[in-house]
Amino acid sequence: MIKLSKAAASEIRRVQSKRQKPDAKLRLGVREGGCADFYYTIDFEQVINSEDQVYDCDGISVIVDPESLKTINGLTLDYSEDLMGGGFRFHNPNASESCGCGNSFRIDPSKAPD
After folding, report:
1. By CB count within 10 A, which of 1, 32, 54, 57 is most buried?
2. CATH level 3 topology of 3-111
3. Considering the chain, what is the average pLDDT of its residues?
4. Among candidate residues 76, 17, 81, the one with its CA nearest the CA of residue 44
């Protein structure tokens, strides 16, 4: 399951409106690399692949591919602003360590997905 905070949902709607694509779905993913072993990806798409998992989060369709879901299942996406600007924050219960950048993480090898 993937969750969005109210702040994240509000920011996603703002971006969808700004891009004039209110029907675009939010795709969350994970790729190898970054400061730790993995990094998060976030994008807007119209296409849902047959193997994708789709979550309805406060009226927003969130798409996750099966491989990414192994490492982000249970994730809550938040959004906050500070003096340096705004950004999405990833609260991943599967991450054993997160980089200071907030976008890269590591998973305990004993709990790593197959």
Report:
1. 57
2. Hypothetical Protein Aq_1857; Chain: A; (2.60.300)
3. 88
4. 17
